[in-house]
Every structure is written in structure tokens, then in C-alpha cells.
Amino acid sequence: MSENSKKNVKSWITNISTAVLIFIAAATMQGLFEVTGTQLIMRKLSDCFLIPGVVLGGIASLCWISVKGNFDMLGYGAVTFLNWMIHPRKKQESYFEYKMRQEEKNPTGAWPWRMLIVGLVCIALSAVFAVLFEVVV
User: Fold this and answer.
1) Which of 64, 63, 62, 58 is nearest to 118 (CA)?
2) Dihedrals φ, ψ of 106, to 5°?
3) Of 53, 61, 73, 105, which sits with the fewest C-beta atoms within 10 Å of its C-beta?
4) Are 126 and 46 in contact (CB under 8 A)?
5) Phi, psi of 131 (to 5 degrees)
6) Taking the CB of residue 12, how many other CB atoms lie within 10 A of it?
7) Rounded to 5 degrees, what are φ and ψ at 88?
8) Is the dihedral of CA 33, 34, 38, 43 positive or negative?
9) Whole-model pTM?
10) Assign residue 42 a region: left if phi > 0, alpha if psi is -120 to 50, beta otherwise?
11) Each residue of 14-23: pLDDT tens digit?
């Protein structure tokens, strides 16, 4: 197995494990394991799958937005302001220099698309259980 394949497998395992842990925590807090009745179980399962879906999907979406450079100006402003507060006489770097430094840190523009897929699968499972909740009488 190549090094890249090992990283892919490790990433999938990490994302799925995170979703399962969030699901178990949500199921415990929702009282899924003490519930009786098919309709109530379907409702709780829908809720418990929605939480990891929103968390993982939201984090992956924010990472994608960040990689595309949409938060660069906000980050530049915060870093410049903090540097100005700490070192008021030091010459601050320009936005162009900041942008080039950021691109050197992440030249490939990698973002956690696997996390987004796992989150979307959880949201789809939540939708399935929501439909079953409405159908089961």
C-alpha cells in the first residue's frame, strides 16, 4: 500500500470514527437506548444522525471557504492589529506579503472533502429516518 493510500484510509477512518463518537454522544444525551416504540426510535435516530452531519459538514465547509481565501482579509486585519498593539513601531507587512506567506503554508489548497462526504451521508441518514418517522404509525 502506497503512502498516499495509507493517508486516505487513515483520513476516512478518522472522519467516520468522529461521526460515530458524536452519534453515540448524541444518542446517549437523547436517551435513544432507553426509548421504546418504533416511531420514537426513528425520531431519535434522525436527531442523532443530524448532529454529526451538521458538525462535520459545517467544519468541512468552513475549511473549504478558508482554503479558497475568503477569510484572508479578516485574518490579515486581525494579525496586523495584534502586531501593531504589541510592536507599534515595527513596520507591518503588506496584504500581498501576508497572502504570499499564507500560500506558502498551504500551497496545494487541500481541504477535508472526506469530512464533507461523511457529514452529508449522516445528513442523508437523518433524512431517511425523518421520513420513516413520518411514515411509521
Assistant:
1) 58
2) -135, 75
3) 105
4) yes
5) -65, -45
6) 14
7) -65, -25
8) negative
9) 0.76
10) alpha
11) 999 999 999 9
